[in-house]
Amino acid sequence: MELSEAVPAPAAWAENPNAGRYLPGAAFLVAFVPDEDPNLEPTVHIHSHDEHVIPYEIMRWFMEQVADQVEPCRIAFEHGESEAGMFTQ
């Protein structure tokens, strides 16, 4: 899972009312939820050369999203399923 700062969509998209106004920028927080071993905990990697200020509520939301992926990965492991990449957001 990745957390990135939104960047404006290309100006050409403005003519399409169904097009999004923003796109994800480069990820500066990347969370890895291991699905190959239920004993491993998620890890968060910081990828940034610049300082980023993350509001507390956004960080909480992101970590809740990460936590919500742990149980499905552990259940899949117990059932012998390979879920690698399935929960990427």
TrEMBL record:
This is Uncharacterized protein. The lineage of its organism: Bacteria, Bacillati, Actinomycetota, Actinomycetes, Kitasatosporales.
